[in-house]
Amino acid sequence: MRQALDDIKVIDLTWYISGPYCTKLLADYGAEVIKIEKPGEGDPARKFPPFLNDEPHPEKSGLFLHLNTNKKSITLNLKSEEGKKIFLRLVEGVDLVVENFSPGVMGRLGLEYPSLEKVNPRLGMVSISNFGQTGPYREFKASELVLNAMATAMKSCGSKEREPLKMGGRVVQYQAGAMAATAAMVGILASKMQGIGQYIDVAISETQLGSIDRRGPLLVASQYTGEVEGRIEVGGSQWGACPDGIYPCKDGYCDVIGGAMWWPSIFKMMGEPEALADPRYGSWEWQTDPERKAEILAVFLPWARERTKEEVAEAASKARQAAAPVYTTADLLTNPHLAARGYFVEAEHPVAGKLKYPGPPCWPEETPWELRRAAPLLGEHNEQIYSQLGYSKQEIGLLRAYGAI
What pTM did the predictor assign? Predict the structure, then answer.
């Protein structure tokens, strides 16, 4: 069965997270993605933990193994003249180039888009950078923390009495990678349907400013209210409701959505306790009154702590209440729903062995997602790709000896 992008060829000049996640999405839906890595070193993500069995090794980085499935790896020195010539030959036969170097790097290499477009007029190119290719911030360095702060995400995270907090993990990088993949499809469609190439500038900071994850709606709302979004009090609810938020239970935590409209189902979920039988507990006045909230929690907290998170979720489901278990990674790996849908898939890696990988973000029925192969070894496809360009084994050996690949 054909995959959605199996007629698309991509040169991947990305490293770390945002760029590789962009090209991973393309590769997992069928695109032939040729990942170009620095000879002898490769993508710096190869050095990032966690490592399989806690053994640092360039072929055992969990981050790299996750972000580079279905790709081919070649090594190429873009600073050498021969390396640049090879790169231009590669560009002739592809649909898209994706890079996430600092602004200006491709220009200094003589490989900026106008130069590549002369070689392949239908070429699309996506550049991913912290603040974009233009503007006074274009040269600024950034981190996940910096991007969270400058995109206002931190303003609404954390407790009211404390400093703002960034979200855990590398949410910004993955969101930016997903948006870059969408941008890449814009370039590919323009090439396929209109016969034109184009350059696409993706600023990670701007993918956050327009994100539906709090930023976009709050930026719009502030224009109407004139208010700057704040943070909630410790143990509080953004809506003043109770119970509303994350609470401890027997084996972890559960998340409960509260408020006046939900009170009848919350009351039913808890077994209709006599202490909370007064319907005024569901009124806005009582829901926001500190003394009444304390009375609600005096009943709800012991009820939750006596039950597992799955038991809380089951009781909520029977009462048609919005609540859910807060899952750990271990919970997900054994989750019966995900197992029934075949979400997690396995692939054999020549060094790391057989590993389980997350599945697709969506399931096209006729042009499916597929894990065809695990992440590549450094330079694993040198001979295959360079022989397709017409280089003999002897010439490939010479290119390696001279430091071009």
Answer: 0.90
